[in-house]
Amino acid sequence: MKVIKAEAMGFCFGVRDAIDVADSIPNPDEVTIHGELVHNPVVLYELNESGFRIAAETNRDVPETDHVMITAHGISDHERERLTSAGKTLIDTTCPLVGRVHRAAKTFARQGYLVVVIGRPGHVEVRGIVEDLEDYAVVPDVDAVRFFAATHIGIVCQTTMPPDVVERVRQKISRQNPESLVRFIDTVCQPTRDRQIAVDRLANLVDIVVVVGGNNSNNTRQLVRRVQTAGKRAIHIESAADLRDYGFLGVSAVGLTAGTSTPDSVIDEVYSSLSSIKERRDAVLSTAS
User: 272 lies in which domain range?
Assistant: First the structure.
């Protein structure tokens, strides 16, 4: 049984930068993280053990600490104002590519466009984008596209949406609103593209793909979807311990990929576990022959 790694996987630069900032803070117990710094249970556990306070993403109570850390997912200007007005000092780790989505959406809004965000409703990144908008719609997929009573429509995307889904949604919005002026700014981030291209290639080489990432990580879910779309079995796990529930009998090649919120250490542990499974299977087959 071969174990093949995806060409691109794991932490993106935005997440890695956010983790580096957290690691550099001398007194974590004096900082509240505004939501999940990354959607990964291992990272969240380590942050909690370091002393950080972690507020729920939907919690709007004013944090007790003087310092509030903004995650890579970003927040709205409205939320920034609420926190700074309460006397909080912000430690901002917003990914610059997420910031680009905010700027594009606000530019459309100032120009009088209805802003349509192609993304997952309720996701922390999407909430941060739309909280600064008065007139907007969130469209997760082609089935949710409808006629919008607007003469001008401006489309942006959650950074982790699959480019193929974005393109189909964009085209259908134009078809459903033929009398509207439709403008589109592609804000899917390059790390997301790289990981999805890599998993497409990987799926062609293996029987099963193990996808490592948090259960609430949108980009990890999209990797799973792409494997399944390719007609291959996807096993979504959060850590190496989850592999105990899965069998690999009859499998000649296993692929390994991970979402952008998955640390290298977790990927390495999963790879080590898969390699151990490979060794045990190879030994059994050798004995049988």
Answer: 2-9+190-288
